[in-house]
Specification:
Blueprint: E1 2-5, H1 22-33, E2 42-43, E3 52-59, H2 70-80, E4 85-89, E5 105-113, H3 121-124, H4 134-141, E6 146-149, E7 164-175, E8 178-185, H5 192-204, H6 210-219, E9 234-240, H7 243-248
Parallel strand pairs: 3-9
Antiparallel strand pairs: 1-3, 1-4, 2-3, 5-8, 5-9, 6-7, 7-8
Length: about 260
């Protein structure tokens, strides 16, 4: 399944004690459709509390009974789910498929608001207190692409065995009053993009040069980088299982306009 959700109302994808999660809501509705049988969803990753998604991927072992066609399941889930969660697509895959380990890469978009904030924009973007220059953000972002140890941009580094990841490209586009920064990579660490966005915001404000950003990356130390950007501006755009889709992916504009 590809799932869209507004993360504002949830503690993230993964089930958490005493907090609502997207996984729990979906599993509850699937269980009801399948005669109260236990259903376990395997997600492609974990998204933090407040982070949104357009095409988060998840899979589950479909019970043989009751028999529900894919079309009926798609419609029934979207009728039962709250407005903040919607199934975008649904199809059968081989039994050996794993939504997390078979993923070739992911695309995320972070939205900065360069204009006037409204009660609606503040739910899905970050309005900096500084005046930001998109060209400076793009110049700094170019220093973060490639294969690197991203220890400077991860929270709880001691909990992670390996901090080396590959970012294939970072696309910076200004659409109306919004600056959309899209990261395409083979994988991302805990709060990695939000940590990088804190640095890119500082660069956009003129507080850091591209050389400073390179220095922060090479330091491999979280304390060398600015604070983490808020969750509300981050969207998981797509999880890739096909190499050509990953290679050809283009940013889809402002995520919350979809």
């Amino acid at each position: 399944m590809e799932i869209a959700y507004d993360g504002s109302e949830y503690s993230g994808w993964q089930i958490q004690p005493h907090s609502p999660s997207v996984q729990e809501e979906l599993q509850t509705q699937l269980s009801k459709l399948y005669a109260d049988q236990s259903i376990h969803l395997i997600g492609s990753s974990r998204t933090d509390a407040g982070v949104h998604a357009l095409r988060f991927a998840a899979s589950f072992l479909r019970p043989e009974r009751p028999e529900i066609t894919e079309e009926r399941l798609f419609k029934a889930l979207n009728r039962r789910l709250p407005p903040a969660i919607r199934i975008q697509s649904l199809k059968s895959v081989p039994l050996e498929f794993h939504s997390r380990y078979d993923a070739l890469g992911k695309a995320y978009t972070y939205v900065l608001n360069l204009g006037t904030e409204t009660p609606f924009s503040c739910r899905y973007s970050w309005k900096s207190i500084h005046r930001l220059d998109a060209a400076k953000i793009a110049a700094a972002a170019a220093r973060l692409t490639g294969t690197h140890d991203y220890s400077s941009f991860v929270v709880e580094r001691s909990m992670i065995d390996e901090a080396v990841r590959t970012i294939y490209r970072i696309d910076v586009r200004t659409i109306g009053q919004f600056c959309c920064v899209t990261f395409v990579g083979n994988g991302f660490l805990y709060k990695m993009i939000r940590c990088m966005m804190g640095t890119l915001e500082a660069a956009g404000a003129g507080k850091l040069t591209p050389d400073d950003v390179t220095g922060i990356l090479e330091a491999k130390d979280r304390v060398s980088a600015p604070e983490t950007a808020p969750a509300r501006g981050l969207f998981l755009m797509k999880v890739f299982y096909d190499q050509s889709e990953l290679d050809d992916y283009q940013p889809e504009g402002v995520p919350f306009w979809h």
